[in-house]
Amino acid sequence: MTRTLTRRTFLAAAAGAPALLWTTARAADAGRLRAGAAVADITPGKDVCLDGTILRLGPAKQVHDHLHARALVLDDGTRRVAFVLCDATVMGPEVHEEAKRLIQERTGLAPAAVVTAATHTHMAVRMIRSIAARHEANAAYHRVVARRIADAVAEAVDRLQPAQAGWGVAKRPDYCNNRRWIMKEGTVGPNPFGEFTDRVVMGGRPTANRVRPAGPIDPDLSVLSVRDAAGLPLALLANYSVHYAGMVGKTVSADYFGFFADAMADRLGAGGDGPPLVAMMSNGTSGNITRAPGGNFEGMQRVARSLADTVTDLCKRLPHRRDVSLATAATRLELRVRRPGDDRIAWARQVQAGTWNKPAHKWRDVYAHNILMLAEYPPTVRLPLAAVRVGDLGIATCPCEVFAETGLAIKAASPLKPTFTISLANGFGGYLPPPEQFELGGYTTWPAESSYLEVGAEPKIREALVGLLRQVAPRDRP
Fold this sequence. Notes:
By secondary structure, the protein is an alpha/beta fold. It has twelve helices and 23 strands. Among the domains are: 30-176 and 215-323, no CATH class; 340-374, no CATH class. The chain is 31% helix and 25% strand. It has an eight-stranded mixed beta sheet, sandwiched between helices. A four-stranded mixed beta sheet has the order 18-19-20-22, covered by helices on one side. α3 (93-107) packs parallel to α5.
């Protein structure tokens, strides 16, 4: 069992100095980095639906644990950047844009300097326009969340104080499993469109028909640790590539993302005279990564506590610096939408009319609805992509559910070491399978609101993100 550290005992353990040191260090020159952090509650009411693009879950039945928007603001004296992690499954562009409009109005922070992202807990609200259009309570909830995000950032700005930062990576492959499995030929059933073309299935328990995982995992548990001028823990941004640890249901929960934040506050943020530690876990490149099946609340807590143990140990060993500079770069990349052809539209209409009687899939009707929705999409979309540098740490942000192989490739090509990617950031672009994964088929490639970008989107996005990381890197980096 891990011993709980107070803010004062953490300082002594990490620095090997008496706890009294914090009083004198607070008055000393802390360098140019400043930081502030804050939290706002975004728990939905029970009239808000937890529907998704595929599943229709209906209204929330109960709240297991509260959802939050957690904000961290950094300022190097020249530039200022904000990170906000929200306990949500996904957030559509209208939520991000409204939140950033309010942030700029209240704090002066430009939208390009703000990273807003969903954690991707599956026991929260999918904040996208198509669902809000069906449920007024959801549309109202979108507006509330945008305001709460702005509240958290504004409070974090008010709390700015001299700070120091450190960053590092630990390896935690034990919870990472590629959820796309190549199967023996002839053992995969029809897809929702009645076609026997898939070579992979997603998730499920092991069977004799499994051949091998369809891709790699990313075992990195990346950490940006922020302390105040005295070395007391102030905030923490972690990144891990596991889709979620729990389940899908009508009970509201932040899953391991929120439990990790609580566990870190318990380990590093108790006691002391300052505000409590604000810890947050961002979703890495987990579009094809999950933990072992059978998740429940106990399992979520187990994952969170175990990762928190690793991060606590890492933070005590990380060197923290005051002379930390910031840089940001952003772009919008235009990509084609996989709008359906006439044959697929005719199929969808036959399904809805009840005249299509070929092999049925459990999600046939849902995908028929999605196909008709995609037919109304514009031919192209412009996805927001961004990169942030904090000292020598690189952070790429993408609105898609990015696959592990993409995240690994970005890390390898980035001039900044370490680098990690925050998925589902600043918008919602659906799954982002690499082109070779489309050849294998399977759920994450089926055209729908959850997977609508062109087949060639992944290499274009990956190249753009690496280019942005090169823009923010110091000039002496290749």
